[in-house]
Design brief:
Largest interface: A-B, 28 and 32 residues
Number of helices of chain A: 11
Number of helices of chain B: 10
Shape of chain B: globular
Strand content of chain B: 5-15%
Strand content of chain A: 15-25%
Largest sheet of chain B: 5 strands, parallel
Distance between the termini of chain B: 32 Å
Order of helices and strands of chain B: HHHEHHEHEEEHHEHEH
Structural class of chain A: alpha/beta
Helix content of chain A: 25-40%
Oligomer: heterodimer
Number of strands of chain A: 14
Distance between the termini of chain A: 28 Å
Helix content of chain B: 40-55%
Strand order of the largest sheet of chain B: 1-2-3-7-6
Largest sheet of chain A: 7 strands, mixed
Shape of chain A: globular
Chain lengths: ~325, ~290
């Protein structure tokens, strides 16, 4: 079922599959990038361990700047550092950065065209018990409307490491969205990763629906696809890790093949990954489509899996949505 | 920095007058923009560009240059006029201010005019960018620094922004003695007098308690301005903030001290009257036009 070219973790459907917080990959990636390029500096707003920036801070204390609980300062100081040739990475929870400092990011980073890399951890409702105040489900929308901003949502810790390395090498502003909890490691070190190039994880001969997911939802989409396969419904699964720039070529290809699309993300339906896909498809290749996400609501306390189920992002919900879209297509 | 001779002081006074004239002319031509702040800060900009700063108008991106970060971007007519008079671009280009296709955007955009260090307009974000620049210098050159100074120009109204105070805290934490902030303390903002809108006083005490070296000056006295910058450059182990007491609309009696002139340009008639006043000011003007 899995596309062999993607060299995915063969154990992804096992109950005992390895799970690692996606943010861990960022910590490793930043440490590696910092070792390779002395112009990389890191700034954090009082969450250094929680965002895994501590690996860099411990190794390169002279290049680490602790700004305190001050997210507006976090990104504007980073802009000033970038003006002098540095490549700053900033980290906080996504709810606070970019949640609280959007205008500063717009004016001093994007409008100024400074290569600041914004890392928003603890994004999505899977943050869990901390509750709705800490569950950023608007950040993709906030970042993807900004000209020049690259937006990446890694599917697992390995991809987060690769994404961190990749954005460290670009000269443009970038945003990486990280989830807090342990997530199934879907990819391997050998899996391909290129910014702006979506990965087709499952590509059956005659797919009936194209499933597109990002972040931890990629694993759920794969499990849903397997379940659908057992019911003889063949779907393709694509990991759209880069939401901006959008991989229009791949989206066009998988949409043509399947003729119907379902997107899945841990974000508001309005303005997120599915919206980005819909904006492209409605103008180029309109097909029956459903965007799965949080429907104009806030999160709440709970365990990640029960929250995802409650807000309609469980495997069963994906399966049912695919069937409904399929019915729209055939009618 | 060289000492200020009497001749140089005369030169600066004359230059400031010409820059004020250019500000008035460009605002009349634009038909919109801010009047009070630019005129109030003209003497400080003149001192910085014609005496204090290490810079090269022929090579605006010279890496060794001092940096000037204008936080309150709305006073950009004075920045543009001073840069034009310093030779960054032709003085005639000032007539394009705020017009379609101009490099002189209504609020500064650094990509349109490469000699700018940053884009600004939304308030409160300039000092923190200057903190970042000063930090970068410290990272690369250590405590002794590169010899470059980072100048941040702020308005008093933008102390309403939390971001400004965050930057003051961080500048003190990292003991950035290569950072010099200059506050345009003109006591006005859009909705009225600062002490009525959101009281700032005792501002000097507040900033001293944030562990900055604080100097208060008359922002229209070149001896004061240049002495204060010299003192700031000599301070070790903490950043300096210069509270420059200025008169909004300085140089044109009709505009002075009136918050109504914060955000509007002179009409053609008002502009002509203002130019006539500037050109005869105290008999000191040796205008190129006369």
């Amino acid at each position: 079922m899995l596309n062999p070219d993607q060299k995915l973790n063969p154990k992804i459907f096992d109950l005992q599959v390895e799970q690692v917080p996606i943010r861990d990959g960022f910590g490793d990636g930043l440490l590696e990038a910092g070792s390779q390029n002395k112009n990389i500096v890191a700034l954090c707003a009082d969450l250094v361990e929680s965002t895994r920036m501590n690996l860099f801070a411990d190794k390169f204390p002279e290049r680490y700047i602790e700004v305190g609980v001050a997210e507006q300062n976090l990104v504007t100081v980073a802009s000033g550092l970038a003006a002098m040739g540095k490549i700053p990475f900033t980290s906080s929870y996504a709810m606070f950065s970019p949640g609280r400092n959007w205008e500063q990011i717009r004016t001093t980073i994007c409008y100024n065209d400074r290569p600041v890399k914004i890392v928003g951890s603890h994004a999505g409702i899977s943050v869990g018990p901390d509750g709705g105040t800490h569950q950023a489900i608007e950040d993709i929308a906030l970042m993807r409307v900004l000209p020049r901003m690259t937006v990446v949502v890694p599917a697992d810790s390995i991809e987060a490491k690769k994404a961190t390395s990749a954005i460290a090498k670009t000269t443009s502003p970038a945003y990486i969205r990280l989830a807090r909890n342990k997530s199934v490691v879907v990819t391997t070190d050998e899996s391909p990763f290129e910014l702006g190039v979506a990965n087709m994880l499952v590509c059956p001969n005659k797919p009936e629906v194209a499933l597109i997911a990002c972040g931890p939802m990629v694993h759920r989409a794969l499990v849903a696809a397997k379940k659908l396969e057992s019911e003889n419904i063949m779907v393709s699964v694509t990991n759209l890790h880069t939401i901006k720039p959008l991989d229009e070529k791949t989206i066009k290809r998988i949409t043509k093949e399947a003729g119907a699309v379902v997107t899945v993300e841990e974000h508001q339906i309005a303005g997120g990954m599915g919206s980005a896909v819909a904006e492209f498809l409605v103008q180029n290749l309109p097909v029956p489509m459903t965007i799965m996400g949080i429907n104009d609501d806030f999160g709440q306390s709970g365990e990640p899996s029960e929250l995802l189920d409650h807000y309609g992002l469980g495997v069963e919900a994906i399966v049912e949505t695919v069937k409904k879209v399929l019915a729209r297509k055939t009618n | 920095m060289e000492a200020l001779t009497d001749d140089k002081k005369e030169f600066l006074i004359d230059k400031a007058n010409l820059i004020r004239q250019s500000i008035i002319e460009s605002l009349v031509e634009a038909g919109s923009g801010h009047t009070a702040g630019p005129l109030g800060m003209t003497d400080i900009f003149t001192a910085l560009y014609f005496h204090v700063m290490r810079h090269d108008p022929q090579n605006p991106t010279w890496p060794e240059r001092d940096r000037l970060v204008l936080s309150n971007g709305h006073i950009c007519p004075v920045l543009y006029a001073t840069m034009a008079h310093a030779g960054y671009f032709p003085i005639t280009e000032l007539s394009t201010l705020r017009k379609f296709g101009t490099r002189l955007q209504g609020h500064p955009h650094r990509e349109y005019l490469p000699a700018l260090e940053t884009s600004s307009g939304p308030l409160g974000a300039g000092l923190s960018q200057a903190v970042g620049m000063a930090l970068a210098d410290k990272l690369d050159f250590g405590e002794a620094g590169s010899g470059r100074y980072i100048y941040a120009l702020l308005s008093d109204g933008e102390f309403g922004e939390g971001n400004t105070w965050e930057a003051f805290m961080l500048g003190a934490k990292y003991k950035l003695h290569n950072l010099i902030a200059i506050i345009d303390r003109n006591n006005i903002q859009i909705d009225g007098y600062t002490e009525n809108v959101l009281p700032l006083e005792p501002l000097a005490d507040k900033l001293a308690s944030f562990n900055w070296h604080v100097i208060e000056i008359d922002g229209h006295n070149f001896d004061d301005i240049i002495d204060a910058v010299g003192e700031a450059q000599a301070v070790y182990g903490k950043p300096t903030v210069i509270i420059a007491h200025t008169i909004p609309g300085k140089g044109v009696a009709e505009f002075e001290r009136k918050y109504e002139w914060h955000g509007k340009p002179p009409t053609k008639e008002e502009g002509q009257k203002a130019l006539a006043e500037l050109r005869t000011l105290a008999g000191k003007i040796k205008s190129e036009h006369e």
